[in-house]
Specification:
about 15% strand; alpha/beta; Alkaline Phosphatase, subunit A; 12 helices; two-stranded antiparallel ribbon
């Protein structure tokens, strides 16, 4: 695995990657899950990349995978991160640490045309920057274009999955052939390839799916109808690909170096038991130094409130950073970052 290096406390080298599959469906909830704050803050992926830096000069270190495979008429949407740029941004960190969104690399602009376009854009941007110095967002946007161009021209191998998907065993493992799992499988397979090649943080958002009772829906279930009609299809879309990813990582000897996180942004509770409830919800993690086969924390009998070992989102972020060999107490930039109240949930560690 060539996923980059950082140093542990004893000076030994440790390499890692992180794949996050998320089912956030609300803008403010999504922002909170990814940044740990309700307003503007650096996303978890930006902090992870900020620590050791990029491990591959061609590929971005922080990637958002959306989109559907050609011919997928089952999924209703490409999958998106709610909270938009705030959820995958860099806050007060360098704008270059924000996520690079990837949705379709099968139909890039012709190389010569795009190179000329980027050169012309760089000229215009340099003229603007000369008149308005210190606009970091402009440099970040230009770098994102350049990164996309490098991916299309210098790193096609990372995105070429043809040889892998020709393997019947791998197709069955991830669930490439059934329509409900086809797009999720493709993105998780690509996520594994990216992590192998040095990408630090890969984010895969859930898609909207058809309902068994008519219409469509996502994880935002407020009534019994979507619970009956939508949840089974949402589970069908991700269960086999997620199991396939973990099995594949384990078979390749990569699971101990890759942290897989599956998460959402809230539970349900209150009147009718179907309203938003941020007091109790569940994430699960695999690989990357997590204590396997364990459950940490518990709710009351109704599932409304965490009553045993509650863990704040920022504590989860601190724990994920720690599992990636990074100390959240060292993560501050221009006075913004993790504060002394954040705690690593050490009982989750192997």
């Amino acid at each position: 695995m060539n996923s980059g290096w950082c140093l542990t406390d004893d000076g030994s080298e440790f390499r890692f990657g992180c794949v996050v599959v998320v089912k956030a469906t609300h803008s403010e909830g999504g922002v909170h899950v990814f940044t740990g704050v309700s307003k503007l803050g650096a996303s978890l992926g930006a902090w992870i990349l900020h620590g050791p830096g990029s491990a591959n000069p061609i590929l971005p270190g922080h990637v958002l995978l959306t989109g559907r495979v050609p011919g997928d008429k089952w999924a209703v949407s490409d999958g998106r991160v709610h909270g938009s740029a705030r959820s995958i941004g860099s806050g007060s960190l360098s704008p270059s640490l924000q996520a690079q969104a990837i949705s379709d690399l099968q139909n890039p602009i012709a190389s010569e045309t795009q190179r000329r376009w980027l050169d012309e854009l760089a000229t215009l941007n340099s003229q603007f920057a000369a008149r308005h110095p210190g606009v970091a967002e402009l440099d970040s946007r230009t770098e994102s274009f350049q990164t996309a161009y490098r991916m299309q021209t210098a790193a096609p191998e990372a995105f070429d999955v043809e040889n892998e998907i020709a393997n019947p065993a791998l197709r069955k493992l991830y669930g490439l052939d059934p329509l409900p799992t086809r797009s999720t499988e493709a993105k998780l397979l690509l996520a594994r390839r990216l992590v192998e090649r040095g990408v630090r943080f890969v984010l895969v958002p859930s898609m909207k799916v058809p309902s068994l009772e008519g219409g469509t829906g996502d994880w935002d279930t407020h009534t019994p109808t979507p619970v009956r009609g939508v949840i089974p299809n949402l589970a069908k879309a991700c269960d086999q690909p997620m199991a396939g990813l973990i099995t594949d990582l384990k078979d390749r000897g990569l699971l101990d170096q890759t942290l897989v996180v599956w998460c959402g942004e809230m539970g349900r509770g209150g009147n009718g038991h179907m309203n938003h409830n941020g007091n109790a919800f569940t994430w699960w993690m695999a690989g990357g130094g997590v204590r396997a086969g364990s459950v940490y924390g518990a709710t009351d009998e109704q599932g409304f409130t965490a009553v045993e070992n509650p863990v704040h989102v920022r504590d989860l972020h601190a724990t994920i950073l720690w599992l990636c060999g990074l100390d959240h107490r060292q993560f501050k930039h221009n006075g913004v970052g993790f504060d002394d109240s954040c705690k690593v949930a050490t009982e989750m560690l192997a």
